[in-house]
Amino acid sequence: MKTLRTRHLTLLSLLPWILTGFGAGVLNGLLGAAGGILLVSVLPYLTPPAGFTLAPSPFAEQRDVLATSLCVMLPVTLLSALLYILQGNGTSPQLAMVIALPSMLGGLGGAYLLGRLPRNLLRKLFGLLVAVAGVRMILG
Amino acid sequence: MPLWITALSAGVAGVLSGLGIGSAGLFVLYLTLVLDMGQVQAQGLNLLFFIMSAGASLFFHIGKRHIPWRVVGFLVICALPGAVLGTYLVSVWDTLLIRRLFGVMLTVSGSMALFRKAKG
């Protein structure tokens, strides 16, 4: 019979989760991005405290991590977007309308294609492009 | 720049987002470098972009993926104060500093994508 490995649910055991969540929120608000990147990078290595799950890890595979990250960042991004607008950093309604439908269709298309495209190759190409652009932004 | 190119860019970035490759940096780059939009305004538009693209892609994920909802709820509670702090810092920090931090983020995430081994 499978037994639960019990650990007292302490603040210490929750601290990595708290810091990860908080950090993702800060990145999301400060940079408008990257909160999900932090979650996807860190979550698979976090040990779940007792009471969250029976499994060794809540995440069976990387796609679960991605899906979880999306679920977390969506409400957080809603709050960040609202605060940006209230601060006067929102964008023109016209531009928002221009990107609305393509964004949604693109998101649907990408999720559909997940597993059907050479994702690793795309990731490396994207990584190269973004890293070079990032260096340029730092120096520029 | 014709609006259809902006729409196409959003679509491409959306596909990358749905693939889990991470398109946020790419779209902000387009907005700042091609449309000459301010860094913070571009980030604001990027937030809207993410809401739409990620919200749509969740249709495919929910029901097919194991999503630990208690973990999601806990992380959201932890992230919301962080988002408040982050957006406050945007309002008080210099735009050039934010742009450079964004560049650091791009460099790190791009390098991670470049050198990370393939996963399932």
Explain what the structure shows.
The complex is a heterodimer of chains A (140) and B (120). Chain A has 140 residues and is mostly helical. Helix content of chain A is 69%, strand content 0%. In chain A, α1 packs across α3 and α2 packs antiparallel against α3. The longest helix of chain A is centred in the middle third of the chain and has 25 residues. Chain A is globular, with a radius of gyration of 18 Å. Chain A starts with 10 loop residues before the first helix and ends with a helix. The longest helix of chain B is centred in the C-terminal third of the chain and has 24 residues. With 120 residues, chain B is mainly alpha-helical. Chain B starts with a helix and ends in a 5-residue tail after the last helix. Chain B has 5 helices and no strands. In chain B, 79% of the residues lie in helices and 0% in strands. The model of chain B has no long low-confidence stretch (mean pLDDT 85). Classes of the chains: A mainly alpha (140), B mainly alpha (120). Chains A and B meet through α1, α2, α3, α4 and α5 of A and α1, α2, α3, α4 and α5 of B.
Strand-helix topology:
The complex is a heterodimer of chains A (140) and B (120).
Chain A: H1 11-31, H2 35-42, H3 62-86, H4 93-113, H5 119-139
Helix pairs in contact in A: 1-2, 1-3, 2-3
Chain B: H1 3-18, H2 24-34, H3 39-61, H4 69-92, H5 95-115
Instruction: Give a quick account of the main beta sheet of chain B: strands, pairing sense, barrel closure.
Output: none
The number of helical elements of chain B comes to: 5
End-to-end distance of chain B, in Å? 39 Å
- What overall form of chain A do the CA principal axes indicate? globular
**Overall average residue pLDDT of chain A:** 79
Strand/helix succession of chain A? HHHHH
Computed Rg of chain A: 18 Å
What is the overall silhouette of chain B? globular
Main β-sheet of chain A, in a few words? none
Number of strands of chain A: 0
Radius of gyration of chain B: 16 Å
Order of helices and strands of chain B: HHHHH
Helix-and-strand structural type of chain A = mainly alpha
Strand residues, percent of chain A: under 5%
Largest interface: chains, residues each = A-B, 95 and 96 residues
Instruction: Figure out the total of helices of chain A.
Output: 5
The low-confidence parts of chain B are none
Oligomeric state of the chains present here: heterodimer
**Derived structural class of chain B:** mainly alpha
Distance between the termini of chain A: 61 Å
